[in-house]
Amino acid sequence: MHQLPKDTSLTRADVDIEPLPDLTCDELLTTTRTVRRGLDLDRPVDLELVKDCLRLAIQAPNGMNRQRWRWLVLTDPAIRAAVARIYCEAYFQRNAGTLNRLHEVDEATRRTVSGGRELAEKLHQVPVLVIPCLELDTEQLPAGNQAGVWASLLPAAWSYALAARTRGLGTAWTTVHLDREREVAELLGLPPTVHQGGLLPTAYTVRTRFRPGPRRPLDEVLHIDRWQDARTVMERS
User: Fold this and answer.
1) What percent of the chain has pLDDT over 70?
2) pTM
3) What is the DSSP letter of 193?
4) Which residues are bridge partners to 201 per DSSP?
5) From the centroid of its chain, how far is CA 36?
6) What are the CA-CA distances from residue 185 to residues 101, 134, 142, 190 (Å)?
7) Checking CA distances to 235, which of 117, 146, 185, 214 falls within 20 to 30 Å?
8) pLDDT mean over 165-185
């Protein structure tokens, strides 16, 4: 990424950002991270760029091709600030216990919770907030198979994150505000039949290179043909 020269009046938005190199499919899938820190809060994001990402996202699979997804894209500073206030309150309420004993938890948890706190405190500065929703026939979510319900939205939301990554944008997949979903719904004027599925803060990132995230080895979570100890799978392979 180009650095700002010294003694200049240029802002970051005035400087050409090095274009994101072409990503292979494997690189895209392994380096699309939840970016809590490192979002460029000073560089505006063109709404048309967000729309481009959403046009790709709505090619995702969905039940019976009903296409019941709906997308709220929040760009107005006052609206973003109001949603961010609710989000921040929900975050600190949810994580109060862990935040009060950060010195006691492991490094990975401390890093994740601290990053989440930073995102919550700066969410109002993120230039675009995307809220994926499902519009159903009833105010209550159907009983039973929730996987079937949300499978008509969440793949598209992840496709949006992937498309954003290829365009130099970072996202942070979060559902914290759903602890107070009705409050956000009333703020945004959502009908009671519209159900929110998450929140994707979207901004350019201050760096373009990301590494794969830490994950458990596949052999520890893989079960073949029937549920069995993962060690049995390793012995058979």
Assistant:
1) 88
2) 0.87
3) T
4) 129
5) 9
6) 33, 13, 19, 5
7) 214
8) 97
Q: What is the pLDDT of residues 101-134, one digit of tens each?
A: 988 989 888 989 999 999 999 999 999 999 999 9
pLDDT of residue 8: 31
Cα 38 from Cα 146, distance rounded (Å): 34
Residues written for the chain:
237
Cα 126 to Cα 34, 161, 170, 182, distances in angstroms: 14, 15, 11, 22
Give the number of other Cβ atoms within 10 Å of residue 232's Cβ.
Answer: 12
Q: Are 90 and 180 in contact (CB under 8 A)?
A: yes
Instruction: Report the 3 state secondary structure along the chain.
Output: CCCCCCCCCCCHHHCCCCCCCCCCHHHHHHHCCECCCCECCCCCCCHHHHHHHHHHHCCCCCHHHCCCEEEEEECCHHHHHHHHHHHHHHHHHHHHHHHCCHHHCCHHHHHHHHHHHHHHHHHHHCCEEEEEEEECCCCCCCCCCHHHHHCCCHHHHHHHHHHHHHCCEEECCECHHHHHHHHHHHHHCCCCCEEECCEEEEEEECCCCCCCCCCCCHHHCCCCCCCCCHHHHHHHC
pLDDT at 5: 32
| Mean pLDDT score, 48-61 | 98
Q: What domains can be seen in the chain, in order of their start residue?
A: 26-209 (3.40.109.10)
